[in-house]
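Researcher: Re-running this chain for the archive, since the previous output was lost when a drive failed. Same request as before.
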Amino acid sequence: MRVVFFFFLLVHFSASGQSVIQTLLEAPISDFEYEEIAASQSYLNSANFNSPWLRDVDFRVRTRNDATIEEYRMRFGLLNPMEIKANKAYQYVLEETLGLRKEVRTKKIIEQRMALIIERIRLEMRLAQIDSSIAFLKNIREIVLTESDENIVDDLIEIEDDIFNTQLDKQDFTSRYEINSFLIQQRIGREVNARLDSANFVTIDRMSEEILNLGTANSQFALADQELKLEQSLFSIKKAESWSNIGFVQAEYDVDRGNNFNDHLGYQIGITLPIFNSKKPDLRRDKLELIEEEMQQKANKSAMQESFDLGKMRFSGQLKNWQLSKDYQNQLQKIEQIGLESIKSIIAFNKRKQTLEKWQVNALAEIWLTYSQLAMKNADEGILINWLSKDKEEIVILRE
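Model: Regenerated structure tokens:
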């Protein structure tokens, strides 16, 4: 019965730790850049960039010398259909761009949240190790005090020094833990009262397999392409606007002409000949800027891919170091099985064990962080996932 109860508690607290992590990742977003994008999207939902079919409308009257009206004229200035088309296309491209900006920003925020969560787990693990180390050292101190050996003073000095340094470490990590709690509260808007659990995290072997199959930073590439598409759309508008005035249609009514109503009516059509364009220098400058934008976009994508590839190389190095630490851990276990007879050997062994445990916790946190960042950058559009979870749980951002 006790075994079943213990198993229930273990599963409960593990699930609780995981649910807290998922809750932190799905918390409503309060971020200036994110809210700015959302505000722009909200504006586009109630407004559009559709151009009118007419550029302008003029009503003109011609009078005689005695101020009586001789002629009425109504002129309709025609707008270039290419300008109408360009503005419609721009709105569509802008909506897509804002959607991608929001998605990339959301992924960045989730990356930041995951970094805080990973740091929280690392600090919890380090504090648990430190408490265990202090308890071990105090226990060794009690054993040494019961001995009648004349050399116990040297051992006690070394033990007290280790206890003091370990307590300093605890104070430092406690301070970091409090800072982490503050940052979680400020940036995520949630208090964390439960211990976070990494038991449901994806295994290192599985991480390694998945990272090897990652190709490019898909979401970043998509946004870079879309931003360039937006600039090209703006240039299309400017080009169409340079020929905005394509002509006019005019209806007129001449009071003195003819006897019947139809005799008084007249029509005129004017067409602007595309021979001279005063906006041509401006267009050439804009075209030059667009070419520079295209070159810059290629350079940015190349830098993104390089950063992504370097991240994969860094992850590979972290895995190799992790394997070395596991080999060293096996060697320490063999030494422990042989037996530690003297106090000095016990103290020396404990120091090396502490150093290894400290390094492994830090290394594991770096592996989690690098993996989650690479996986998030590689994810296709519209995909928000907790990549560290074994089941790859979907992240659904809650609303305020």
